[in-house]
Amino acid sequence: MHPKKKKNGAKVRGGLIAALDVGTTKVCCLIARPGGASSPTRVVGIGHQASRGLRAGVIVDLEGVEASIRAAVEAAEQMAGENIRHVVVNFSGVGLSSRMVAYEVSIGGHPIGDSDVRRVMDPAPALADNPADHELIHAIPVGYSIDGSRGVRDPRGLYGQRLGVNLHLISAPGGPLRNLTTAIARCHLDVEQVVIAPYASALASLVDDEVQLGVTLLDLGGGTTSVAVFFDGELVHADCVPVGGVHVTNDIARGLSTPLAQAERLKTLYASVLPSPSDDREMIAVPLI
Q1: Structural domain of residue 147, as residue ranges?
Q2: Which of 17, 31, 47, 114 has the fewest CB within 10 Å, making it most exposed?
Q3: Mind listing the pLDDT tens digit for each residue in 57-84?
Q4: Eight-state DSSP code of residue 5
């Protein structure tokens, strides 16, 4: 996947696109109908459900995750009035491997065509150094070079002897990834494509100027926090750590000896990363356990 190209989503009867977000605290499903040349894509179904069976983005109870996915998908299907068979799903677990690989192929001096780009984009030669039991999710071209001259955005139609590319390879641990696809398969759904959570968040929230100038996106979830780093219009790094909003809630509950539900309410109503002049004077009532 590449941030500048239109994504091919999971399509079913009626041309619907279905996206599934399986998080530590909630599961969301969106169903959209692509628009034409003059009409935008329209969301026709939304479903969300409290997540069960996940801890820090890792599945620990397959049946609980299956039940949460079923409930979210069924709610979205009821709103859309159609059933889906395929979904694009995010992966928000820890253990992502994000690395840059330089690779070159000989093109013999002829004009560079689509077949040459496909050949240089093949990540197979670089997968030998991939971490054990990791599965490749994204192979993103960061930049091309022709005969050592870097900075080429689109090499097609240009001449040269050697075509090179810097590939950003992102892989995930095979076990958690297979557990996720298994839970989805048990809901009678096929996984059309897997997208890492920070990349999906960046594509949804960043504007073109931010991506071009360089930006770091932090996505604070319930059980994990993921990061995506963009430089010169390209994704150059991605990672995920097993710390999220649930840990903040637990710290508030322990530190103030208050129930978890009250700690979550306090965090939602009063928590802020920006200091305020009234912080030293404002008093908050905290019910004790």
Answers
A1: 97-171
A2: 114
A3: 899 999 999 999 999 999 999 999 999 9
A4: S
